[in-house]
């Protein structure tokens, strides 16, 4: 035992570089200083802890700042040292308790040595605690500053905009997004919710919110960004230098810049916003659509008004407990309707009604609200001023009067754009442009500006606009204050009698449309009247003989849809009349000879009237630009009067043909020859019963191939002359051909197709594909519909179609094609560029269709947004693996809507879940019993918002992961 201890001492002495005698002597010294070393260590520790407490106190005083890296490291080392000191103290106390034991010399000496070394370490650590570089520095900006805002989660008509912008933020190529819409629609709320979204926190290093406001400047915007970034700038630094500082700071970050209330376009580079490669983005909100374009937005999101349900929910939340009263609810529903779906207005109105605690106050408040803005209501003038700013900011009186004219129509009703343009032109708002086409172009420019500032809005019905209730009230208030634009607008009120004579006398424009008027004043003093709109008063059977005597300034007269059987003699007094609408006056059997007095008449519409012959007086109207009539207006015999050909100024002609009536070839041939002689014609709508009649026009008219010429031709006998596919386009497609109930290929059809935008082929026989007409001839097609063509086996035959085919086609609808097998049939892959602009593809009732994306077609459809497959009983796979091997994961990158109905054999959408589906928002599946798996994982289809499906089918699905099923179930609308 003694020998082992001696051996250990020798080893230790050797390691320490001393002799055994020296080593033992040192151990004796350490053992003698055991208590002293402990006291010195603990004293040094107390001094260190005191310094540590001082540093932490300084940190606590500067909560807006953070500790320096040096300081953080020092505090951590002190913490470690403190733990080590505690362990040494514990050993010391244990050694003291066992001091009587023998032998304790060596452990006590070793412990004393460790305490002495620890004291030296603490001394060094205390010296480092001076922290020459300081204790604190500015905290880095938080990645997101949460902004208080009402949540949009329970308001779908607001939340969709948040989701739409999030979808765009996920797109790598989308750098700038513009959110636009009229004042009060909730743009700021959407931007605030976007700022607070958890997904945004994960996507960006920092989110910067700036409210630009009307009184903006580059310096103010820069100052907001500098404060957010916690950057300091010395006095006298220029905007250019500040921009460089901001750019340097943001250059290495993934940033999201949210610019709210942008009034004027500006260059982001002047502010200091860099274009970096870090997937940084900018979203700006504005009232003006064009501003978004001016600021180079890659995507635009149009802010709509709230749905009635969301508006009521918001109103209910803000009013509170009073809404629990059942007797209040019917009144509250009417109050909400007065707010026109504008969150700003709902907020103001709710604050007023929150103070009303009984039904009497609510009823009185509703009456006041219905009379606003003719009377003042608390808080509402602010809303009106917001709205009036957009009106006052319009450059040019023409735009202002065009806007005010919209108040003649009922609130939120669809106003046909072409009709509105004609009224504007007739009133002289379009700068006295003579040619109708030029006037329409000018009108569309004004309409664009009104929509741009949200004074008018696009309707859900294409080629229509509407004016909401609040803006209409504002327009009526503005018009009431001016001497030259007083409106009398009493629409949809169920009026059975006309307004009082004094109201007629003071008005410049009168609208009594959509009422139950039976009689009109016998005489009216309307010397200043320029527009009179009486349409759709279905019980109005007679106009007094002297009714028009004082209306010499009348320019627009609309009587369509009334029950009048004749026009009064005083019609001849309307010598300034420009537009006369008599369409759908079925009891009207003739036009009076006094029509020739209307020397300035430009527009005449007599479609669907009982008029059986076109009077010669029509040919005397030398200013006539636009004539709309029915073929029946020519009578049943051969028209010999040559009335149409005598209207030398005619630019636009529509001749409706009743599809159920068989007209003699000779009648149609004669009319076609007449129309062919018109030298100023720019637009023609006509139904040719046979292809030979179309051939007569094509060979005789020198105009139809002119770039400015537009047409809607229907060839053959079909049940409807309406172009169904046109309803899907926001813009107007101007050259349309409907071809029905014929067979084979006629050269004149191929010729007309060379100029055609829209082609609808119906019940055609003896062709196997559209390529039979020549794909070169259809190179301009933007939309195509094929219906009831029983011999078609494919749409494009790659054996005869030169590449690329249908390169501009945007929408295709295939319906009731019993022999159709595929879209593209050919020996090789689909040529690059073919169908490259396709955004919508629909199949209905194609029982033999098996392949949709054959020959690599799917790779060309990068812009496809809507795919619908219904009643196609042989479809087993949407994307067939053998036809599309090694698909890129971003295939179908733009697809937003997928509809699959009545597909009994469908087994899969795609072979697996490798596709990303980056844009898919809606999935609609019904009657697909064999489809047992969806192509989704926990990673893909992140933009998916809704799934319409049968609950019984959903319960049969097989899932890779329960978490996926749970996520998708939350999106389901079960039927």
SSE order and pairing:
Blueprint: H1 2-16, H2 20-32, H3 34-61, E1 65-67, H4 69-97, H5 105-128, E2 136-138, H6 156-170, E3 176-180, H7 187-196, H8 198-203, E4 206-211, H9 218-229, H10 239-250, E5 255-260, H11 268-271, E6 281-286, H12 289-294, E7 299-302, H13 308-319, H14 329-338, H15 343-353, H16 359-371, H17 380-392, H18 397-405, E8 415-416, H19 417-427, H20 436-452, E9 457-458, E10 464-466, H21 469-480, E11 487-489, H22 501-506, E12 509-511, E13 531-533, E14 556-558, E15 579-581, E16 603-605, E17 626-630, H23 643-646, E18 652-656, H24 665-676, E19 683-688, H25 691-700, E20 710-715, E21 735-740, H26 747-753, E22 758-762, E23 783-787, E24 794-797, E25 811-815, E26 822-825, E27 840-844, E28 866-870, E29 897-901, E30 922-926, E31 946-949, H27 951-954, H28 962-969, E32 972-974
Parallel strand pairs: 3-6, 3-7, 4-5, 5-6, 11-12, 12-13, 13-14, 14-15, 15-16, 16-17, 17-18, 18-19, 19-20, 20-21, 21-22, 22-23, 23-25, 24-26, 25-27, 27-28, 28-29, 29-30, 30-31, 31-32
Antiparallel strand pairs: 1-2, 8-10, 9-10
Helix pairs in contact: 1-2, 2-5, 3-4, 3-5, 4-5, 6-7, 9-10, 13-14, 13-15, 14-16, 18-20, 19-20, 24-25
């Amino acid at each position: 035992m003694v020998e082992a201890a001696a051996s250990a001492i020798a080893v230790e002495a050797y390691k320490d570089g001393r002799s055994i005698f020296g080593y033992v002597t040192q151990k004796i010294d350490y053992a003698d200083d055991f208590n002293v070393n402990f006291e010195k260590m603990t004293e040094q520790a107390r001094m260190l802890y005191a310094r540590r407490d001082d540093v932490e106190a300084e940190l606590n005083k500067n909560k807006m700042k953070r500790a320096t890296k040096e300081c953080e490291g020092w505090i951590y080392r002190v913490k470690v040292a403190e733990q080590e000191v505690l362990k040494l103290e514990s050993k010391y106390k244990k050694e003291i308790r066992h001091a009587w034991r023998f032998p304790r010399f060596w452990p006590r000496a070793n412990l004393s040595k460790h305490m002495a070394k620890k004291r030296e370490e603490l001394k060094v650590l205390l010296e480092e605690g001076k922290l020459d570089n300081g204790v604190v520095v500015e905290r880095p900006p938080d990645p997101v500053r949460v902004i208080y805002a009402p949540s949009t989660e329970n308001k779908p008509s607001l939340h969709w905009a948040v989701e739409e912008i999030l979808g765009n933020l996920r797109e790598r190529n989308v750098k700038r997004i513009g959110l636009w819409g009229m004042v009060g629609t909730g743009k700021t709320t959407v931007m605030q919710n976007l700022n607070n979204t958890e997904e945004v926190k994960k996507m960006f290093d920092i989110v910067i919110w700036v409210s630009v406001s009307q009184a903006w400047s580059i310096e103010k915007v820069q100052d907001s960004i500098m404060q957010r970034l916690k950057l300091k700038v010395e006095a006298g630094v220029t905007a250019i230098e500040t921009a460089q500082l901001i750019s340097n700071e943001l250059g290495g970050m993934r940033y999201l810049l949210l610019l709210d209330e942008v009034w004027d376009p500006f260059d982001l580079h002047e502010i200091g916003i860099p274009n970096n490669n870090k997937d940084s983005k900018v979203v700006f909100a504005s009232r003006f659509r064009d501003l978004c374009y001016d600021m180079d937005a890659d995507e635009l999101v149009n802010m709509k008004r709230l749905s009635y349900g969301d508006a009521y929910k918001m109103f209910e939340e803000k009013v509170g407990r009073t809404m629990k009263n059942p007797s209040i609810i019917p009144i509250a529903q009417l109050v909400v309707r007065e707010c026109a779906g504008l969150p700003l207005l709902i907020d103001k109105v709710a604050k007023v009604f929150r103070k009303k605690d009984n039904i009497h106050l609510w009823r009185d408040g509703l009456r006041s609200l219905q009379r606003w803005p003719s009377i003042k209501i608390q808080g509402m003038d602010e809303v009106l001023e917001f709205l009036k700013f957009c009106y006052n900011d319009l450059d040019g009186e023409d735009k202002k009067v065009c806007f005010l004219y919209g108040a003649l129509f009922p609130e939120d009703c669809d106003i046909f754009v072409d009709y509105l343009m004609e009224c504007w032109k007739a009133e002289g708002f379009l700068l006295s442009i003579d040619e109708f086409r030029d006037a329409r172009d000018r009108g569309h420019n004004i309409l664009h500006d009104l929509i741009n500032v949200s004074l008018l809005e696009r309707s859900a019905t294409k080629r229509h606009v509407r004016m909401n209730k609040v803006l209409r009230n504002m327009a009526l208030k503005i018009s009431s204050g001016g001497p030259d634009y007083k409106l009398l607008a009493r629409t949809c009120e169920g009026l059975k009698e006309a307004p009082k004579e004094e109201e007629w006398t003071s008005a410049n424009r009168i609208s009594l449309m959509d009422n139950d008027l039976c009689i009109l004043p016998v005489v009216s003093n309307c010397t200043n009247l320029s527009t009179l709109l009486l349409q759709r008063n279905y019980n109005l059977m007679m106009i007094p003989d002297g009714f028009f005597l004082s209306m010499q300034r009348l320019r627009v007269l609309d009587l369509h849809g009334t029950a009048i059987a004749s026009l009064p003699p005083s019609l001849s007094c309307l010598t300034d009349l420009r537009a006369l609408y008599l369409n759908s006056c079925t009891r009207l059997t003739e036009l009076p000879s006094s029509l020739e007095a209307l020397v300035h008449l430009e527009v005449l519409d007599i479609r669907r009237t009982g008029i059986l012959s076109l009077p010669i007086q029509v040919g005397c109207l030398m200013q006539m630009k636009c004539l709309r009539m029915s073929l029946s207006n020519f009578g049943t015999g051969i028209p010999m009067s040559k009335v149409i050909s005598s209207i030398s100024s005619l630019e636009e002609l529509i001749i409706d043909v009743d599809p159920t009536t068989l007209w003699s070839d000779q009648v149609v041939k004669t009319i076609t020859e007449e129309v062919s002689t018109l030298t100023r014609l720019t637009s023609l709508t006509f139904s040719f019963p046979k292809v030979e009649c179309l051939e007569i026009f094509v060979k005789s008219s020198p105009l139809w191939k002119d770039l400015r010429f537009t047409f809607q031709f229907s060839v053959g006998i079909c049940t409807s002359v309406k172009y169904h596919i046109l309803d899907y386009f926001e813009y107007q497609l101007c050259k349309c051909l409907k071809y029905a109930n014929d067979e084979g290929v006629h050269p004149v059809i191929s010729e007309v197709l060379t100029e055609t935008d829209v082609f609808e082929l119906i019940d055609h026989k003896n062709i196997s594909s559209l390529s039979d007409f020549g794909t070169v001839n259809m190179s301009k097609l933007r939309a195509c519909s094929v219906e009831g063509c029983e011999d078609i086996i494919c749409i494009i035959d790659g054996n005869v179609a030169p590449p690329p085919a249908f390169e501009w086609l945007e929408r295709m609808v295939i319906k009731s094609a019993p022999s159709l097998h595929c879209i593209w049939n050919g020996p090789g892959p689909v040529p690059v560029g073919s169908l490259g602009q396709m955004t919508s593809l629909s199949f209905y009732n194609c029982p033999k269709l098996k392949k949709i994306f054959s020959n690599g077609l799917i790779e060309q459809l990068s812009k496809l947004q809507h795919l619908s497959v219904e009643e196609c009983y042989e479809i087993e796979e949407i994307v067939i693996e053998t036809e599309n091997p090694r698909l890129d994961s971003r295939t179908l990158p733009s697809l937003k809507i997928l509809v699959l109905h009545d597909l009994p054999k469908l087994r899969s959408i795609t072979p697996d879940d490798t596709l990303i589906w980056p844009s898919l928002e809606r999935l609609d599946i019904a009657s697909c019993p064999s489809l047992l798996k969806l192509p989704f994982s926990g990673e893909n289809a992140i933009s998916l918002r809704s799934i319409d499906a049968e609950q019984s089918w959903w319960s049969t699905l097989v899932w890779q992961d329960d978490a996926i099923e749970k996520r998708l179930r939350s999106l389901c609308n079960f039927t």
